[in-house]
Design brief:
Largest interface: A-B, 27 and 30 residues
Number of helices of chain B: 9
Helix content of chain A: over 70%
CATH topology of chain A: MetI-like fold
Structural class of chain B: alpha/beta
Structural class of chain A: mainly alpha
CATH superfamily of the largest domain in chain B: Periplasmic binding protein-like II
Order of helices and strands of chain A: HHHHHHHHH
Order of helices and strands of chain B: HEEEEHEHEHEEEEHEHEHHH
Number of domains of chain B: 2
Largest sheet of chain A: none
Strand content of chain A: under 5%
CATH class of chain A: Mainly Alpha
CATH class of the largest domain in chain B: Alpha Beta
Number of strands of chain A: 0
Shape of chain B: globular
CATH topology of the largest domain in chain B: D-Maltodextrin-Binding Protein, domain 2
Distance between the termini of chain B: 50 Å
CATH architecture of chain A: Orthogonal Bundle
Oligomer: heterodimer
Number of strands of chain B: 12
Number of domains of chain A: 1
CATH superfamily of chain A: MetI-like
Chain lengths: 216, 293
């Protein structure tokens, strides 16, 4: 067997653990950011200043900061303020805050993408605003949101690679550790790339499935 | 018959040996080295015609400039450090121009393998995997090194045994943790830090209790870290290792030349002097003698 293949096989358990951690970080981030992102999107579209103002500030702060900076602060900065977090908790906190900000905007674009005439028509028909959003707007908006939502999910999967700077040995962290240790670069990098491709291909397939289900 | 022959042969050999030793004692000792002769291999081509350089006539060096005091960017924007000066010395002595390419560590080894530089690595510890790599060539050692632990002074950790139940960390991909695996097997958890400054920060933050690294870099790192006065080194140092530089796999002639020069710098003490200036000590260079380098 080729030596570089043998080397990858020797470290396969470590790479697998890193891959599982990448899946875990992505899944938790997506699962938590989705409902919160949606709430923030609704809050931003709300006519209540007490809701839309804080939502706008939150989005514009966490959308403006690089994820790297957020992660650095949550792991290395918070302990100095008396909040020591474990690496995985710090990474999840940073990624979730950042993802909520972006996801809420993706979802809001779905909401505002619906012709305002429909809101007016619903109002004329005597529907409440809540009823209008749940029964009229959302079913159409969801279809618009699918592509940006899955794209965001893919960005989140790739974004987990930054977690290695807060001592989380996810896939990229594990791979770059192995490259440093063995000084053998391409075999490990190729395996890492293939695993990200696999994960994101699954998400792309999911997008196709959802789009078919939502089409009419 | 066989036995008798053996006995005679043995007696004859013994007789010859005694005659030879008597001669050796009586003859004047043959002098290999004349007084005042330079103790260096000076017989090498200058300039050395290098056939496989990435850029002809120029030594292209890949550095991180992020491992002070061996390699860093000085306040004037120039690269500085004992290993930077070592690379410059190679270029000078080989009659080549020098060009530094600064890259973060994850890009250095792929870059060397992809023929972007002729030489790289501020110091690469020898390991089985690296010695047999097809991606690059390892030079003869420039330093010897060993593994120690950095702890907070108030942590109560005074020996390897005290690390039981403590949170330990080391830089991702560094080999030093491996040599103390037995010593720290009782540790509570293990964090792979992205770099050494982050390790010092995590120690001071209380996110880590023990940071495993190499002895040579530990002292200057502690001295230059914020909160370094709260940190100390514990030993005894384990896992004596040696480290060289990495040479492009296409350039065996460069490896030959670099090995010759490293040996010369060992003999005339010029590399030890650079290390003394930047690291405050040259014991890690002198220690190489114990290993025959």
């Amino acid at each position: 067997m080729d030596a570089s293949v043998a080397m990858v096989l020797r470290y396969a358990p470590q790479i697998w653990d890193g891959f599982l951690l990448t899946i875990f970080l992505s899944a938790v981030t997506i699962a938590v950011s989705t409902p919160f992102g949606f709430l923030v999107a609704l809050a931003r579209e709300s006519r209540q200043p007490l809701l839309n103002w804080p939502a706008a500030v939150f989005v514009n702060v966490f959308r403006a900061l690089p994820l790297l900076v957020i992660l650095y602060f949550s792991f290395y900065g918070l302990p100095q303020l008396g909040f020591p977090l474990s690496p995985v908790t710090a990474a999840l906190l940073g990624m979730i805050l950042s993802s909520i900000a972006f996801m809420s905007e993706d979802m809001r674009s779905g909401l505002v993408g619906i012709d305002p005439g429909q809101y007016q028509a619903a109002a004329v028909l005597g529907l409440t605003r809540r009823h209008t959003i749940v029964r009229i707007i959302l079913p159409q908006a969801l279809r618009i949101m699918v592509a940006p939502y899955i794209t965001r999910a893919i960005i989140i999967v790739k974004g987990t690679s930054l977690a290695s700077i807060v001592a989380v040995s996810e896939l990229t962290g594990t791979i770059s550790g192995l490259v440093s240790m063995t000084y053998s670069a391409f075999n490990f990098l190729l395996v890492g790339a293939a695993l990200y491709l696999l994960l994101n291909a699954l998400l792309a397939a999911l997008q196709g499935y959802i789009e078919r289900r939502l089409s009419w | 018959m066989g036995k008798l022959t053996t006995l005679i042969a043995a007696a004859a050999l013994a007789g010859m040996a005694s005659i030879q030793s008597a001669q050796a004692e009586s003859a004047a000792p043959l002098k290999l080295i004349e007084d005042g002769q330079p103790l260096q291999t000076t017989a090498f081509p200058k300039p050395w015609p290098m056939a496989h350089l990435v850029k002809p006539g120029t030594l292209t060096v890949g550095i991180t400039a992020k491992t002070p005091p061996g390699s860093f960017t000085a306040t004037n924007g120039e690269f500085d450090g004992s290993r930077v000066l070592l690379f410059k010395k190679f270029a000078d002595d080989l009659g080549l121009k020098i060009e530094f390419v600064r890259l973060d560590w994850p890009g250095i080894m792929p870059g060397l393998a992809a023929n972007k530089f002729d030489i790289a690595c501020e110091s690469a510890n020898w390991t089985n995997e690296r010695l047999v790599s097809k991606d690059f060539l390892l030079s003869r050692p420039i330093i010897a090194n060993a593994t120690i632990a950095v702890v907070r002074k108030d942590s109560g950790i005074k020996s390897w045994a005290d690390t039981a139940g403590k949170r330990i960390g080391s830089v991702k991909g560094e080999i030093f943790l491996k040599s103390v695996e037995a010593e720290v097997k009782g540790a509570a958890g293990m964090l792979e830090m992205p770099g050494r400054p982050e390790g010092m920060l995590a120690l001071n933050n209380g996110q880590l209790d023990v940071f495993i690294m190499d002895l040579v870099a530990a002292r200057p790192l502690i001295a230059s870290s914020t909160g370094g006065e709260n940190l100390e080194i514990i030993g005894p140092a384990k896992g004596l290792s040696v480290a060289g530089v990495c040479v492009n796999k296409n350039a065996p002639d460069l490896l030959q030349a670099v090995n010759l020069l490293i040996t010369n710098y060992r003999v005339d003490g010029s590399f030890a002097e650079l290390e003394r200036k930047y690291y405050g000590s040259d014991e890690h260079v002198k220690l190489l003698s114990v290993l025959g380098y």
